[in-house]
Request: fold
Amino acid sequence: MKKIAVLPGDGIGPEIMAEAVKVLNALDLSLQLDWADVGGKAYETSGHPLPPATLKLAQEADAVLFGAVGDWKYDKLERSLRPEQAILGLRKALGLFANFRPAICYEQLTHASSLKPELVAGLDILIIRELTGDIYFGQPRGRRTAVDGHFPGAEEAFDTMRYSRPEIERIAHVAFQAARKRNKRLTSVDKANVLETSQLWKDVVIEVHAQYPDVELDHMYVDNAAMQLVKAPKKFDVVVTGNMFGDILSDEAAMLTGSIGMLPSASLDANNKGLYEPSHGSAPDIAGKGIANPLATILSAAMMLKFSLNLPDAAARIESAVQSVLAQGLRTADIWSEGTTKVSTREMGDAVVKAITTTKTIKS
Ligand code: IPM
Ligand code: MG
Reply:
C-alpha cells in the first residue's frame, strides 16, 4: 500500500486539504494517508514548524501532499521557527530539487486574468524552478559589522548566491526532458550579464543542450523574462531557472492566468518522489470562512498520482472531474464571475467527488 504524508498546515490549508482527501478517497485507490502538523500549526503544538515526527513521516512516505504554511502572526518569531522553514526544510531534507509550476489559463477563466483575454487564451506554460540551491540555501549568510563596502563599521546582512555544476546539470536534464514531452522549446532564464552564478548556469545549460538537439533552447535575462511574461506569455513553452528567479517568475506567471486558485505544483527528487502543493499560499485573511478554492490542491493530488504513484488513469479522472465542474459553471469566490454559480470550498470538493463517481458509474 502506498503511503502519503498529508500535511495541511496553516490558514486555508486544512480546508482545502480536506477536499483533496475527499477526492482521493472517492477513487478507492488503497492509499494509506498519514496526517501531521506542519508550519505555524506545528510550532503551536510542538514548538517547531517541522517537528522530527513530521519530517520522519514525510521521509518514509511515497509522496507528500502539502497544504500551505504561514501567517502574519508568526512574523516576529526568529527565522528558524517561522512557518516557511517547514517547506524549506522539507525541500532540503527530501532533496526536492526540481519544482514544476504549470501556468495554465483555463478556457472558462480567460476573463479572470489581469491581461487582455487574447494574450492569455490557451496559455499553457511550465516553469521549472531549481529548488534546493541558490541564495535560498547558500552559505555563508548572516549579520555582521561591515569591514568594507560603502559604510565600514555599519551593521550589514549578507546572503550567498551559489550554484555548482552538478546542481545545474541535473535541473537542466529535467527541463530538457520536460520540454521534449511538450512543444520542445526551452527558455533558460538567468542574469548572466551581471552574475557569476548565472554565467555558469548558462554555460552548463548550453553544454547539456548538446544531448537534446531536438529541443530549441534560448536564453533570457530575468528582467526581460519578467517583461515578456506580461507582454507575450504565449511565446513561452518551458522555462527553467534558479531558485530565486523561479520564485518570482512563477508567481507572475500564475497570476496572469487568472487561476492561481487552480494551479498545482510538484517538487521532485531524483527518483520522482515528490511533494505536491497548490501554487497559492495560506491566505490567512480568508481562513476558516469556507470560501477558499480547493481545486489547486485537488489538482496537486492528481499530479501526485501521476508523477510519484504511477497512477495516470486515476489522475486523469480527477482532471476530467475538475473540467466537468468548471463546465457546470461552479466557481469559488476567487474565480466567480457574472452568470456562474458561486460555491463554497466544501461544495466544490463535493462536486468534484460527484463528477468522479458519476463517470465511474457510466464506465462500469
Ligand atoms: C514558494 C514560496 C516559498 C518560497 C516560501 C513560503 C518560503 O514563496 O513556494 O514559492 O519562497 O519558495
Ligand atoms: Mg513563492
Q: What stands out?
A: The mean pLDDT is 95. The first strand starts at residue 2 and ends at 9. The chain has twelve helices and 14 strands. Residues 247, 251 surround magnesium ion (ligand 2) (CB under 6 Å).
